[in-house]
Each structure stands twice: as C-alpha cells, then as structure tokens.
Design goal:
Length: about 70
C-alpha cells in the first residue's frame, strides 16, 4: 500500500519490458530481488535512467547500493 509521503521512482527492466513505480525506501531491495529472481543476479532492472541521476544519490546514500556493486566486473 503506497504512502503518499513516500516518493516512488520508476523501475524499468528492458528484458522483461516492464516498468513499475517503487517506493524510494524499498527500490534498492526491489531491484535486487527482481534481478536475483529473474536474471540470475545480473543487474538488468534499474531505476529509470531518465531520473536515475536525481535519485541515485539518495538511494546510494540510503542503502549503500553503489558501494555494494563490487564483483560484477
Ligand atoms: Zn526483469
């Protein structure tokens, strides 16, 4: 159930051809779970690149998402 005080961000998955609105507070978890379940842990789904720059800092600061992407390359 969406809380109007909790901003949502669009998450897109080019392989699934889906887009969904995910609360900012859980977007990292949602993206990670999606990728683990459907894409064998590959980083396929992501925050819509059109706004990713804007929310990236918030998400990274909140969840440590960027610092945790160590072993994909
Ligand atoms: Zn997907």
């Amino acid at each position: 159930m969406a809380n109007e005080d909790d901003p949502t961000v669009p998450v897109v998955c080019p392989e699934c051809d889906t887009e969904s609105q995910v609360p900012l507070s859980s977007v990292g978890e949602t993206v990670e779970s999606h990728n683990e379940r459907l894409h064998d842990g590959e980083e396929v789904a992501e925050i819509d690149p059109a706004i990713a720059e804007r929310v990236q800092d918030l998400v990274a600061a909140d969840l440590g998402l960027l610092d945790d992407a160590g072993d994909s390359q």
